[in-house]
Amino acid sequence: NSDRPEDEIQTVKCVSGDNTSSLRKCTYIDVETDMSVSSQDSVLSCPSWMFGAEMGCNSAGVVIGNEAVYTKVPYEAEPALLGMDLIRLTLEKAASAKDALRILTEFLEKYGQGGDCSADRDGWQYHNSFILADSTEAFVLETAGRTWVAEVVTRGPRSISNNLSIHKHDFSSRDLVEKARALGWKGDSEDDLDFAAVFAAGGCDPDQRELCGRSLLANATSNGSMQVEDMVEILRSHKGSICMHGGFSSTSSQVSLLTRAGNDVHLFTGSSWPCSSIFKPIDVSSATEYSSDAFELSTELWNAQRRMLSGLYRDSAQLDAIRDAQRLTEKDWLDYFREHKKSKIPFKNALEEELALYRKLAP
Protein backbone atom coordinates (compact mmCIF):
# COMPACT_ATOMS: atom_id res chain seq x y z
CA ASN A 1 0.00 0.00 0.00
CA SER A 2 1.14 3.51 -0.82
CA ASP A 3 0.24 5.80 2.07
CA ARG A 4 0.14 9.43 1.03
CA PRO A 5 -1.84 12.63 1.68
CA GLU A 6 -5.46 11.58 1.12
CA ASP A 7 -6.19 13.99 -1.74
CA GLU A 8 -3.00 13.26 -3.73
CA ILE A 9 -3.96 11.57 -7.00
CA GLN A 10 -1.93 8.45 -7.81
CA THR A 11 -2.20 6.93 -11.27
CA VAL A 12 -0.87 3.86 -13.05
CA LYS A 13 1.65 4.67 -15.78
CA CYS A 14 3.11 2.31 -18.33
CA VAL A 15 6.46 3.62 -19.53
CA SER A 16 8.26 2.29 -22.59
CA GLY A 17 12.02 1.91 -22.26
CA ASP A 18 13.77 5.01 -23.58
CA ASN A 19 17.01 4.22 -25.40
CA THR A 20 17.23 7.58 -27.21
CA SER A 21 18.59 9.82 -24.44
CA SER A 22 20.64 9.43 -21.28
CA LEU A 23 19.07 12.47 -19.58
CA ARG A 24 16.22 11.97 -17.13
CA LYS A 25 14.36 14.98 -15.75
CA CYS A 26 13.47 13.82 -12.25
CA THR A 27 11.29 15.64 -9.73
CA TYR A 28 13.91 18.20 -8.65
CA ILE A 29 17.10 17.44 -10.60
CA ASP A 30 18.27 16.00 -13.91
CA VAL A 31 20.41 12.84 -13.91
CA GLU A 32 22.33 10.78 -16.46
CA THR A 33 21.52 7.11 -17.03
CA ASP A 34 23.71 4.38 -18.48
CA MET A 35 23.10 4.27 -22.24
CA SER A 36 25.15 1.08 -22.59
CA VAL A 37 22.31 -0.80 -20.86
CA SER A 38 19.01 -1.25 -22.69
CA SER A 39 16.00 0.26 -20.96
CA GLN A 40 13.15 -1.90 -19.68
CA ASP A 41 9.44 -1.24 -20.05
CA SER A 42 7.84 -0.59 -16.68
CA VAL A 43 4.47 -0.20 -14.98
CA LEU A 44 4.50 2.42 -12.24
CA SER A 45 2.15 3.70 -9.55
CA CYS A 46 2.93 7.41 -9.51
CA PRO A 47 1.75 10.38 -7.45
CA SER A 48 0.60 12.69 -10.21
CA TRP A 49 2.92 15.63 -9.49
CA MET A 50 6.29 13.85 -9.41
CA PHE A 51 8.59 12.00 -11.81
CA GLY A 52 8.99 9.00 -9.56
CA ALA A 53 6.84 6.08 -8.42
CA GLU A 54 5.81 4.65 -5.09
CA MET A 55 6.08 1.13 -6.51
CA GLY A 56 6.26 -0.68 -9.81
CA CYS A 57 7.53 -3.55 -11.93
CA ASN A 58 9.45 -3.95 -15.18
CA SER A 59 9.68 -6.24 -18.19
CA ALA A 60 12.62 -8.13 -16.64
CA GLY A 61 10.43 -9.28 -13.74
CA VAL A 62 11.83 -6.86 -11.16
CA VAL A 63 9.51 -5.24 -8.61
CA ILE A 64 10.31 -2.44 -6.15
CA GLY A 65 8.31 -0.68 -3.44
CA ASN A 66 9.32 1.82 -0.80
CA GLU A 67 8.39 3.21 2.60
CA ALA A 68 9.30 6.44 4.36
CA VAL A 69 11.74 6.14 7.25
CA TYR A 70 13.15 8.76 9.61
CA THR A 71 16.82 8.82 10.57
CA LYS A 72 19.41 10.85 12.45
CA VAL A 73 21.21 11.82 9.23
CA PRO A 74 20.45 15.41 8.13
CA TYR A 75 18.61 15.97 4.86
CA GLU A 76 20.46 17.18 1.78
CA ALA A 77 20.89 20.96 1.59
CA GLU A 78 20.75 20.96 -2.22
CA PRO A 79 18.10 19.44 -4.52
CA ALA A 80 18.41 15.68 -4.81
CA LEU A 81 16.43 12.59 -5.80
CA LEU A 82 13.26 11.50 -4.08
CA GLY A 83 13.03 7.86 -3.06
CA MET A 84 10.28 7.57 -5.66
CA ASP A 85 12.63 8.88 -8.36
CA LEU A 86 15.09 6.16 -7.37
CA ILE A 87 12.45 3.49 -7.97
CA ARG A 88 11.60 4.71 -11.46
CA LEU A 89 15.23 5.18 -12.49
CA THR A 90 16.12 1.71 -11.21
CA LEU A 91 13.23 -0.13 -12.84
CA GLU A 92 14.19 1.43 -16.16
CA LYS A 93 17.56 -0.33 -16.18
CA ALA A 94 17.47 -3.31 -13.80
CA ALA A 95 17.64 -6.83 -15.24
CA SER A 96 17.36 -8.53 -11.84
CA ALA A 97 16.79 -7.73 -8.18
CA LYS A 98 20.54 -7.83 -7.50
CA ASP A 99 21.09 -5.53 -10.46
CA ALA A 100 18.41 -3.22 -9.05
CA LEU A 101 20.21 -3.07 -5.70
CA ARG A 102 23.42 -2.01 -7.45
CA ILE A 103 21.75 0.59 -9.69
CA LEU A 104 19.66 2.15 -6.94
CA THR A 105 22.55 2.50 -4.51
CA GLU A 106 24.78 3.97 -7.23
CA PHE A 107 22.17 6.65 -7.94
CA LEU A 108 21.76 7.22 -4.20
CA GLU A 109 25.48 7.66 -3.54
CA LYS A 110 26.00 9.90 -6.57
CA TYR A 111 22.99 12.22 -6.30
CA GLY A 112 21.69 11.82 -2.73
CA GLN A 113 18.06 11.83 -1.63
CA GLY A 114 16.02 14.78 -0.50
CA GLY A 115 13.44 17.43 -1.28
CA ASP A 116 9.82 17.97 -0.31
CA CYS A 117 7.92 14.70 -0.61
CA SER A 118 4.53 16.33 -1.13
CA ALA A 119 3.31 18.96 -3.56
CA ASP A 120 1.49 20.93 -0.87
CA ARG A 121 3.18 20.03 2.43
CA ASP A 122 6.30 22.19 2.54
CA GLY A 123 9.16 20.73 4.52
CA TRP A 124 7.90 17.14 4.64
CA GLN A 125 10.99 15.06 3.96
CA TYR A 126 12.09 11.55 4.77
CA HIS A 127 14.60 8.89 3.86
CA ASN A 128 13.55 5.59 2.33
CA SER A 129 13.50 1.84 2.73
CA PHE A 130 12.86 -0.48 -0.22
CA ILE A 131 11.93 -4.04 -1.06
CA LEU A 132 13.49 -5.22 -4.33
CA ALA A 133 12.59 -8.63 -5.72
CA ASP A 134 12.52 -10.90 -8.74
CA SER A 135 11.48 -14.55 -9.03
CA THR A 136 14.72 -15.86 -7.47
CA GLU A 137 15.99 -13.20 -5.05
CA ALA A 138 14.74 -10.46 -2.75
CA PHE A 139 16.46 -7.70 -0.79
CA VAL A 140 15.49 -5.13 1.80
CA LEU A 141 17.43 -1.90 1.37
CA GLU A 142 17.38 0.78 4.06
CA THR A 143 18.93 4.22 3.78
CA ALA A 144 19.99 7.18 5.89
CA GLY A 145 21.00 9.98 3.54
CA ARG A 146 23.54 8.46 1.15
CA THR A 147 24.44 5.72 3.63
CA TRP A 148 22.74 2.36 3.21
CA VAL A 149 22.57 -1.29 4.23
CA ALA A 150 20.89 -4.24 2.52
CA GLU A 151 19.61 -7.56 3.79
CA VAL A 152 19.22 -10.67 1.64
CA VAL A 153 15.80 -12.22 2.23
CA THR A 154 16.49 -15.94 2.45
CA ARG A 155 13.33 -17.48 3.89
CA GLY A 156 9.84 -16.77 5.13
CA PRO A 157 7.83 -13.56 4.79
CA ARG A 158 9.49 -10.13 5.05
CA SER A 159 7.83 -6.74 5.22
CA ILE A 160 8.80 -3.10 5.67
CA SER A 161 6.88 -0.33 7.39
CA ASN A 162 7.85 3.20 8.43
CA ASN A 163 10.74 2.07 10.63
CA LEU A 164 14.30 0.99 10.05
CA SER A 165 14.28 -2.77 10.51
CA ILE A 166 17.69 -4.13 9.48
CA HIS A 167 19.67 -5.22 12.53
CA LYS A 168 22.18 -7.42 10.71
CA HIS A 169 23.10 -6.50 7.15
CA ASP A 170 24.67 -8.36 4.25
CA PHE A 171 25.83 -5.38 2.16
CA SER A 172 26.52 -1.74 2.96
CA SER A 173 27.87 1.55 1.67
CA ARG A 174 31.57 2.19 2.18
CA ASP A 175 30.89 5.04 4.61
CA LEU A 176 28.70 3.03 6.99
CA VAL A 177 31.15 2.71 9.90
CA GLU A 178 32.31 6.33 9.57
CA LYS A 179 28.72 7.60 9.67
CA ALA A 180 27.85 5.32 12.59
CA ARG A 181 30.83 6.54 14.64
CA ALA A 182 29.77 10.14 13.96
CA LEU A 183 26.44 9.24 15.56
CA GLY A 184 28.16 7.84 18.66
CA TRP A 185 28.49 4.16 17.80
CA LYS A 186 31.52 2.68 19.59
CA GLY A 187 31.57 -0.87 18.27
CA ASP A 188 34.72 -2.62 17.10
CA SER A 189 33.49 -4.38 13.97
CA GLU A 190 30.97 -3.59 11.24
CA ASP A 191 29.58 -7.09 11.81
CA ASP A 192 28.35 -5.85 15.21
CA LEU A 193 26.68 -2.71 13.85
CA ASP A 194 22.90 -2.65 14.28
CA PHE A 195 21.81 -0.18 11.57
CA ALA A 196 18.28 0.28 12.89
CA ALA A 197 19.44 0.93 16.44
CA VAL A 198 22.17 3.40 15.47
CA PHE A 199 20.46 5.39 12.70
CA ALA A 200 16.71 5.42 13.54
CA ALA A 201 15.03 8.63 14.67
CA GLY A 202 11.30 8.23 15.14
CA GLY A 203 8.85 6.46 12.88
CA CYS A 204 5.68 4.50 13.61
CA ASP A 205 4.93 2.42 16.68
CA PRO A 206 6.42 -0.96 15.72
CA ASP A 207 3.82 -2.71 17.88
CA GLN A 208 1.02 -1.43 15.65
CA ARG A 209 1.15 -1.51 11.86
CA GLU A 210 4.50 -3.26 11.49
CA LEU A 211 3.64 -6.03 13.94
CA CYS A 212 0.15 -6.50 12.47
CA GLY A 213 1.60 -6.85 8.98
CA ARG A 214 4.12 -9.44 10.07
CA SER A 215 1.46 -11.40 11.93
CA LEU A 216 -0.89 -11.45 8.94
CA LEU A 217 1.94 -12.52 6.62
CA ALA A 218 2.98 -15.30 9.01
CA ASN A 219 -0.59 -16.60 9.16
CA ALA A 220 -1.01 -16.46 5.38
CA THR A 221 2.21 -18.43 4.79
CA SER A 222 1.85 -20.91 7.65
CA ASN A 223 0.96 -23.76 5.28
CA GLY A 224 4.04 -23.11 3.13
CA SER A 225 2.30 -21.31 0.28
CA MET A 226 0.55 -18.05 -0.42
CA GLN A 227 -1.87 -16.96 -3.13
CA VAL A 228 -2.36 -13.57 -4.74
CA GLU A 229 -5.76 -13.36 -3.06
CA ASP A 230 -4.10 -13.78 0.37
CA MET A 231 -1.87 -10.76 -0.20
CA VAL A 232 -4.78 -8.69 -1.48
CA GLU A 233 -6.74 -9.42 1.70
CA ILE A 234 -3.76 -8.44 3.87
CA LEU A 235 -3.57 -5.08 2.12
CA ARG A 236 -7.31 -4.65 2.72
CA SER A 237 -6.99 -5.29 6.44
CA HIS A 238 -7.68 -2.42 8.82
CA LYS A 239 -5.65 -4.03 11.59
CA GLY A 240 -2.91 -1.60 12.51
CA SER A 241 -4.19 0.70 9.73
CA ILE A 242 -2.62 -1.44 7.00
CA CYS A 243 -5.44 -0.10 4.83
CA MET A 244 -5.18 3.47 6.01
CA HIS A 245 -7.97 6.05 6.12
CA GLY A 246 -7.82 9.69 7.20
CA GLY A 247 -5.56 12.65 6.46
CA PHE A 248 -3.05 10.12 5.25
CA SER A 249 -4.61 7.29 3.28
CA SER A 250 -3.63 4.25 1.26
CA THR A 251 -3.92 5.98 -2.12
CA SER A 252 -2.90 3.06 -4.36
CA SER A 253 -1.87 -0.58 -4.04
CA GLN A 254 0.13 -3.22 -5.90
CA VAL A 255 0.47 -7.00 -5.57
CA SER A 256 2.97 -8.98 -7.68
CA LEU A 257 3.35 -12.74 -7.96
CA LEU A 258 6.73 -13.61 -9.47
CA THR A 259 7.31 -17.07 -10.96
CA ARG A 260 10.40 -18.74 -12.40
CA ALA A 261 8.25 -19.82 -15.36
CA GLY A 262 7.77 -16.17 -16.24
CA ASN A 263 4.01 -16.19 -15.66
CA ASP A 264 4.14 -13.15 -13.41
CA VAL A 265 0.93 -11.56 -12.16
CA HIS A 266 0.90 -7.82 -11.38
CA LEU A 267 -2.21 -6.27 -9.86
CA PHE A 268 -2.68 -2.51 -9.45
CA THR A 269 -5.62 -0.62 -7.96
CA GLY A 270 -4.81 2.88 -9.20
CA SER A 271 -7.30 4.07 -6.57
CA SER A 272 -7.56 4.78 -2.85
CA TRP A 273 -8.39 2.41 -0.03
CA PRO A 274 -7.70 -1.18 -1.11
CA CYS A 275 -10.63 -2.29 1.07
CA SER A 276 -12.86 -0.57 -1.50
CA SER A 277 -10.81 -0.92 -4.69
CA ILE A 278 -10.44 -3.38 -7.52
CA PHE A 279 -7.04 -5.02 -8.05
CA LYS A 280 -6.62 -5.10 -11.83
CA PRO A 281 -4.10 -7.37 -13.60
CA ILE A 282 -1.76 -5.81 -16.13
CA ASP A 283 0.91 -7.33 -18.33
CA VAL A 284 4.14 -5.30 -18.46
CA SER A 285 4.45 -5.91 -22.19
CA SER A 286 1.36 -3.72 -22.55
CA ALA A 287 3.52 -0.71 -21.71
CA THR A 288 4.29 -0.02 -25.35
CA GLU A 289 0.56 0.05 -26.12
CA TYR A 290 -0.59 2.07 -23.13
CA SER A 291 -1.92 5.28 -24.66
CA SER A 292 -2.31 8.78 -23.26
CA ASP A 293 -6.06 8.08 -23.31
CA ALA A 294 -5.54 5.26 -20.83
CA PHE A 295 -3.49 7.54 -18.56
CA GLU A 296 -6.33 10.06 -18.59
CA LEU A 297 -8.74 7.24 -17.74
CA SER A 298 -6.50 6.26 -14.81
CA THR A 299 -6.76 9.82 -13.45
CA GLU A 300 -10.51 9.84 -13.99
CA LEU A 301 -10.84 6.51 -12.21
CA TRP A 302 -8.96 7.73 -9.12
CA ASN A 303 -11.25 10.73 -8.82
CA ALA A 304 -14.46 8.79 -9.59
CA GLN A 305 -13.78 6.14 -6.96
CA ARG A 306 -13.04 8.81 -4.32
CA ARG A 307 -16.21 10.74 -5.12
CA MET A 308 -18.35 7.63 -5.00
CA LEU A 309 -16.99 6.35 -1.69
CA SER A 310 -16.34 9.55 0.25
CA GLY A 311 -19.91 9.80 1.51
CA LEU A 312 -20.65 6.13 2.02
CA TYR A 313 -18.71 5.09 5.11
CA ARG A 314 -21.78 5.59 7.30
CA ASP A 315 -24.02 3.64 4.91
CA SER A 316 -22.79 0.10 5.51
CA ALA A 317 -25.41 -1.59 3.34
CA GLN A 318 -24.61 0.49 0.26
CA LEU A 319 -20.88 0.19 0.88
CA ASP A 320 -21.18 -3.60 1.16
CA ALA A 321 -23.08 -3.72 -2.14
CA ILE A 322 -20.34 -1.73 -3.87
CA ARG A 323 -17.62 -3.95 -2.42
CA ASP A 324 -19.47 -7.09 -3.50
CA ALA A 325 -19.63 -5.75 -7.06
CA GLN A 326 -15.95 -4.85 -6.94
CA ARG A 327 -14.95 -8.33 -5.75
CA LEU A 328 -16.93 -10.02 -8.54
CA THR A 329 -15.30 -7.84 -11.17
CA GLU A 330 -11.86 -8.42 -9.63
CA LYS A 331 -12.37 -12.20 -9.66
CA ASP A 332 -13.43 -12.14 -13.32
CA TRP A 333 -10.28 -10.27 -14.34
CA LEU A 334 -7.96 -12.47 -12.31
CA ASP A 335 -9.60 -15.63 -13.69
CA TYR A 336 -9.21 -14.25 -17.22
CA PHE A 337 -5.54 -13.49 -16.63
CA ARG A 338 -4.84 -16.96 -15.29
CA GLU A 339 -6.60 -18.57 -18.23
CA HIS A 340 -4.82 -16.43 -20.83
CA LYS A 341 -1.36 -16.14 -19.32
CA LYS A 342 0.34 -15.28 -22.60
CA SER A 343 -2.19 -12.71 -23.76
CA LYS A 344 -1.84 -9.03 -23.09
CA ILE A 345 -4.25 -7.59 -20.58
CA PRO A 346 -6.16 -4.64 -22.10
CA PHE A 347 -5.65 -2.35 -19.12
CA LYS A 348 -7.50 0.47 -20.81
CA ASN A 349 -10.54 -1.82 -21.10
CA ALA A 350 -10.24 -2.66 -17.41
CA LEU A 351 -10.27 1.03 -16.52
CA GLU A 352 -13.31 1.66 -18.72
CA GLU A 353 -15.19 -1.27 -17.20
CA GLU A 354 -14.44 -0.12 -13.67
CA LEU A 355 -15.52 3.45 -14.44
CA ALA A 356 -18.76 2.12 -15.89
CA LEU A 357 -19.33 0.13 -12.70
CA TYR A 358 -18.88 3.24 -10.54
CA ARG A 359 -21.21 5.30 -12.70
CA LYS A 360 -23.81 2.56 -12.30
CA LEU A 361 -23.36 2.24 -8.54
CA ALA A 362 -22.81 5.89 -7.67
CA PRO A 363 -25.36 7.13 -5.12
Describe it.
With 363 residues, this protein is an alpha+beta fold. It contains nine helices and 15 strands. It has helices spanning 83-93, 97-111, 176-182, 195-199, 206-220, 228-236, 292-310, 316-339, 347-361; strands spanning 2-5, 10-15, 23-25, 30-32, 42-47, 55-58, 63-69, 127-133, 138-144, 147-152, 171-172, 248-252, 254-257, 265-268, 280-281. The strands form four sheets. Strands 2-5-6-7-8-9-10-11 form an eight-stranded antiparallel sheet. The chain has a three-stranded antiparallel sheet with strand order 13-14-15. A two-stranded antiparallel ribbon has the order 1-12. A hairpin with a 7-residue loop joins strand 13 and strand 14 (265-268). The longest helix has 24 residues, at 316-339. It is globular and about 65 Å long.
